[in-house]
Amino acid sequence: MHAICAISTAYGFGGIAVIRVSGEGSIAIVDGLFRGRVTLAEAKGGTVHFGRIERNGEVLDEVLCSVFRAPHSFTGEETVEIACHGSLYIQQELLRWLIDAGCKAAEPGEFTRRAFLNGKMDLTQAEAVADLIAAQSKAEKDLALSQLRGSVSTELAALRERLLHFTSLVELELDFADHEELEFADRTELQTLADEIEHKLAALLDSFRTGNAIRNGISVAIIGAPNVGKSTLLNALLGEQRAIVSDIQGTTRDTIEDTLVIDGILFRLIDTAGIRETNDTLESMGMERSRRAAQNAQIVLLISDGTGTKNEDITVNGTLIHVLNKADIGAAGEGIPISAKNGEIEALKRELVRVAKELMPTSAVMLSNVRHYEAISRAHEAILRVQQGLQDNLSGELLSMDLQDCLAALGEVTGQITNAEVLANIFSKFCIGK
After folding, report:
1. Deepest in the core among 199, 235, 262, 272, taking most CB within 10 A?
2. The pTM is what?
3. Burial of 429 from C-beta contacts in 10 A (0-12 / 13-18 / 19+)
4. What are the C-alpha distances in Å from 343 to residues 29, 221, 321, 327, 434?
5. How far apart (Å, rounded) are the C-alpha atoms in residues 291 and 93?
6. Phi and psi at residue 219, in whole multiples of 5°?
7. What does the alpha-carbon distance between residue 60 and residue 63 come to, in Å, rounded to a whole number?
8. For the sheet containing 336-337, what is the strand order?
9. What's 417's DSSP letter?
10. What's the pLDDT band for 179 if we cut at 50, 70, 90?
């Protein structure tokens, strides 16, 4: 593939910037601009060389060039990474010089796409690269790193290989359809395998709720009657005045969302309108959203302030935590005592972390990508049809169709079966330079 180049560090000026060049002729292109003690053409792979970037007698910068020879690089191609000073002018000029020398500007995710096409990683691992770059918390980083190391790929590859073996045997029977007495695929063994695969796919689907929460934040709805301190608590947790605080009931008319990292876990906080009886149409709409937030949240903080104000009935499907606000002025009642106004909320933070860790399964294999979830859902539906077909003693031809559907869906996850449109959509979401 032709040589491509891009800035791989974040946009802006800094101490250094890294420009990556990869593809056929990359080393020769950079070598044409590099002046060091040795030429890059002579350099061994995995070595770093100090020198100058120079053209027509003009010195642009002093740089370090890291040389990677195929297939021992991120992309699997020959690659040079140029560490230059972080001036925006130097970065842009170096890119221009490289393009003048024969490089093309890289498209979003093109380096990772080449790594996938060259067999350096499968599609789940390629997507994990983008997740790792975007990670906002330790939990999200750990999940992306696990997927980058192949946790999902390894699990699906093992299932697919065993299923492929049986599918081949079933199709072999179809080749000998004139000999009905021949049975290459033992139906009892296939039933056992189908049951095992169904169980594992169901577990993966169940993991998506938690994996998605780790990626986007565990949802925490702050619920309670008006003026119990919900918005004050949101501001205290975030350390900024995110929500308007007022003694006037009904100030919060809509939900307010923001994110917070505590002990490496990303939480998505949802401040809601106070729930009470009212004839105000707008306030009623806000309270309806509050009830929906309580139903959908994984954690619900039910706030009271010891005044005896009745919390209206709400439906909670997640974990309910009772919180007693205004403990600094002697509020008494049920719940974790806090003073949102004074920022005394450490006990509540510890409880949020404890509950969040209970919500997270210990399994290293977890889905967090909607594309994976959709494909594995189709694989699960197909294996359910196989199970039913075995029970109904369906012909091998019909079983084979459902087995092929399952194999195809699993192959879509890892990229064994894909198309250019899917790849273009996936890698278009990457940053340029990765």
Report:
1. 272
2. 0.74
3. exposed
4. 58, 19, 18, 11, 41
5. 56
6. -75, 130
7. 9
8. 256-262, 265-271, 218-224, 299-304, 319-324, 336-337
9. S
10. very low
